[in-house]
Predict the structure of Cytochrome P450.
Amino acid sequence: MESGTLLFLQNLQAYFALLFFFFTLSFSLFSVLLCFLKQKLWCNCDICYAYISQTWSKDFNNLCDWYTHLLQQSPSQTIHIHVLGNTITANPDNVEYMLKTQFKNYPKGKPFSMILGDLLGRGIFNTDGDLWMFQRKISSLELATMSIRTYAFEIVTAEINQRLLPLLSSSVGVKAMDLQELFRRFSFDNICKFSFGLDPGCLEESLPFSQFADAFDLASKLSAERAMALLPLAWRIKRLLNIGSERKLKHAIGIINDLAMEVIQQKRKLGFSSQQDLLSRFMASISDDSYLRDIVTSFILAGRDTMASALTMLFWLLANHPEVVSEIRKESEKVMQPNQELASFDQIREMHYLHAAVYESLRLYPPVQFDSKFAGKDDILPDGTFVAKGTRVTYHPFAMGRMEVIWGQDFVKFRPERWLKNGIFSPQSPFKYPVFQAGIRVCLGKELALVEMKMVALSVIRKFDIELVAPPATLRFDLGLTAMIRGGIEVVVKKRR
């Protein structure tokens, strides 16, 4: 009996010894394989980082300039960056194919939705399919009404008259100001009032700190860093562990959510049917408060930085082209009364040269420099480029505005006249000019954005001269979801001569 027990124990010991041996061997092989893969992975990332940074930083000030150069050299106006797995195109035929002909095969995709999911949730700019279609329908119905356009016009007019112009007047001959920061505050006030019925007061003369605006800044910046990360797994791990930038992002989004939910709950208590802001209009159709928060937050994110970028670049170009400013002033004097402060909605529609100047500015400096989709299945673009399932496909409005084959030999010039025929504005194909996207997913706020830009430009240049502190220089953009100038743009404000 004892010998049998001893034999059993000896066999058990041998079994565990053999098991430990195989475990050790497997662990060693796994470690070697992991080290090999890690070395290969980091090698590829190093190559990727070096390829991107060293290739363009020597000769180009911005990544978008480098992409533009590569696309200009390509016979098909399409390139593929293998280390990024990204097909990039400036070919209008390809753009039309992606955004219209084969729209269903080129959705935003799960990679994009995951990057902005914490901030935008199920909002219209972060969804595809039925969820997107539902929001698209109710948004298009609301934004197309004359009442909402009148409401938006009144908001912008009040912000210009009560805050922007007085602030500029108080700055005449006093000190330089950052034009980009000014327009970020201006656009945030407008979009919050339009979307939430909430006035953060960022453009008051004291330029107060706003926790809501600061949280939005940080959340959009950190979300953009996710999109630019060479190792997507890194930010996912940080989010899982709630450390570093992901902890800051979570805190910023918490502030945004708390305020948004507070506004929604207050509107439900006090009644929203008589209010005109976008949130109140959506509340008539949607009862889910978290869904409402996602929708309206998406509009704020989209309407804030894009407008600030567009206005900054327009005034930068105008400061460098006084002849264009003179033409806009001449046109306004023909349409408006001599002592009239601000133009009416109908008067703005009569100013074709102003409209052309805005379009020309957006051609050269679109707020969103590129936009990516992900192929649902294998496909071939019109120029013959093969696209594998799951491949990221990017169209590049910044580069498209600098293609000689599209705009002619003077494509680098800021020339509003290219949009006019006999003094009347003449639009180009939206697939040559996808600044507002095009096709089925074209920007719903396009007309509202254009009116706002024209109102601001007209009201400012009729009263002031905006001069750059430094001579014209090459612009450097921060990497992000929208084109923001690194360090801003310093200007001095003078009374119009």
Summary: The longest strand covers residues 490-495. The longest helix spans residues 2-57. DSSP finds 18 helices and 13 strands in the chain. The chain has two domains: 1-47, 62-495.
